[in-house]
Amino acid sequence: MSLRRVVVTGIGAITPLGSTAPAYWEGLAQGVSGAGPITRFDASKFKTRFACEVKNYSPDDYFDRKEGRKMDLFTQFGVIASDEAIKDAGLHESGVNKDRVGVIWGSGIGGLTTFQQESFNFAKGDGTPRYNPFFIPKMIADSSSGNISIKNGFRGPNFVTTSACASSSDSIVSAYNYIRLGMADVVVTGGSEAAITEAGVGGFNALKAMSERNDDPATASRPYDKDRDGFVLGEGGGALVVEDYEHAKARGAKIYAEIIGGGLSSDAYHITAPDPTGEGVVLVMQNALRDAGIKPEDVDYINTHGTSTPLGDGAEITAIQKVFGDAAYNLNISSTKSMTGHLLGGAGGIEAVASILAIQHGIIPPTINHFTDDPELDARLNFTFNEAQKREVNIAVSNTFGFGGHNTSVVFRKFRD
Amino acid sequence: MLAKMVLFVPSFPQTPTEMSEIAEKVKAIIIDKLGVEASEVTPEASFTNDLGADSLDTVELIMEFEKEFNVSIPDDQAENIATVGQAISYLEEHAK
Q1: Rounded to whole angstroms, how far apart are CA atoms B62 and B59?
Q2: Which residues of A are known catalytic residues?
Q3: Which of A342, A406, A389 lies closest to A204 in space, CA to CA?
Q4: Does A137 touch chain B (CB under 8 A)?
Q5: Is B56 close to A66, i.e. CB distance below 8 A?
Q6: Rounded distance between C-alpha atoms, residue A372 and residue A375, angstroms
């Protein structure tokens, strides 16, 4: 059986840099930081008191009150991003067969706000259970893909992938697979997360994973800088409409890019620490390049996982150099998490959007907040520090890795007939 | 007391000034949870048929009534509370 070509025909994003895909891209291209003091709860006693929040967010701008009340914030972000992508792709206007449209979403955690709130309520009571009937359906991670399908009537394959910070790259690779295998014609994919809560911040602080640079939030996410001290928590969602090329052509859809490969692997090393040898990350990029049928020198841009943690950033760069050899010096490498913070299970979604728009605009978004070279990292590599760079991008690779040792890479190519 | 009986069992007040505190609270809960307009919340209005509630919404409403009025509504009696008027009547009778 021959595999079908898979193209991206719609994009959407709600991020700390902007609440639509174009606003997000503008922030990326200009090198803006999305970080600021936490406003969602009183963080005064927390080790980290800043994050990359979606700015000026009010569910009332998007949902009627009854609808919004039944969705956790991570699902709201998912519905908002996917609505933008679906509209961008013109799916409803084209009258697509909704039985052949799936939703494969990614979330690393699910409804953390909801879980926390219900637990608080129970703890405040006398032990009598008064759990809200919407508690479980709001909390479970798949309520995101469920709500997106219900809102749009999409009756194709529907599920959520959970692999921590690789979740929404896994959803995109799954969508790519379902379409190339002919199991759906269109899949709405990507991911969302909303973990800027007491439990989220307290939990990641306990892992010593987050930056504690409270005196200067805007420069705290500084991947590949010598003084990086952990990731900055972000929130939001990113969506793609991916589609069988023949299906897209038949309905005259605009095409952003082609997905030509996906790779997955596991570190099989430690539940939170990256393997310092980078072997799992070597494997995932090799798998992705093999699946795409391309050579290392064909790649122009890697949107790295690059979370700004001391160990993780180095391991990924070690792995890139092992896979790409001398071709690594011709790459543009950047971590857009320097601007957006780390969206956890939503990272792969917004970084796919960033990679696709880099191809479309011929601009590499920067790794901002570079002050001091890390002597452990090869200075001959182009990390796209501090300012965007113009570059014709034919092929971009998006890397994401998650606690649990999950590694996923997605390969996007400029579309040609 | 007689006036109250006449007003609320079985008829339903049509203007806010005539409403009991319980009826007002019930109406406010329904407006809040179901996201409906005050004018829709008539005594005959059925939660599911007229006010757009699904099965989970009705469970939530009953729980809110229990919390607000400090009562415990057994499942077999909750099944008989399908309209605004039925909720008010039940709570007028059982609220502590």
Answers
A1: 5
A2: 165, 305, 342
A3: A342
A4: yes
A5: no
A6: 9
**Chain A residues within 8 A of B67 when measuring between CB atoms:** 130
Strand-strand pairing, A257-266 and A363-364: unpaired
The residue among A341, A336, A353 whose CA lies nearest residue A190 is: A353
At residue B13, what are phi and psi to the nearest 5 degrees? -70, 145
Q: How far apart are CA A353 and CA A359, in angstroms?
A: 10
The answer to whether A257 and A23 have CB atoms below 8 angstroms apart is no
Query: Is the CB of A129 inside 8 Å of chain B's CB atoms?
Result: no
Residues A185, A255: Cα–Cα separation, whole Å = 15
pLDDT digits (tens, 9 = 90+) for A7-16: 999 999 999 9
Distance of residue B74 Cα from the nearest chain A Cα, in angstroms: 14
pTM, entire model: 0.93
CA nearest neighbour of A403 among A344, A335, A341, A343: A344
Low-confidence winner among A180-194, A381-395, B70-84 (lowest mean pLDDT): B70-84
Task: Check CB contact of B67 with chain A, cutoff 8 Å.
Answer: yes
Instruction: State whether A130 and B63 contact (CB < 8 Å).
Output: yes
For the record, the structure tokens of A91 come out as 């799916």
Q: Are A238 and A392 within 8 A, CB to CB?
A: no
d(CA A344, CA A245): 30
pLDDT greater than 50 at residue A332: yes
Chain A residues 38-77 within an 8 A CB cutoff of chain B: 64-67, 69
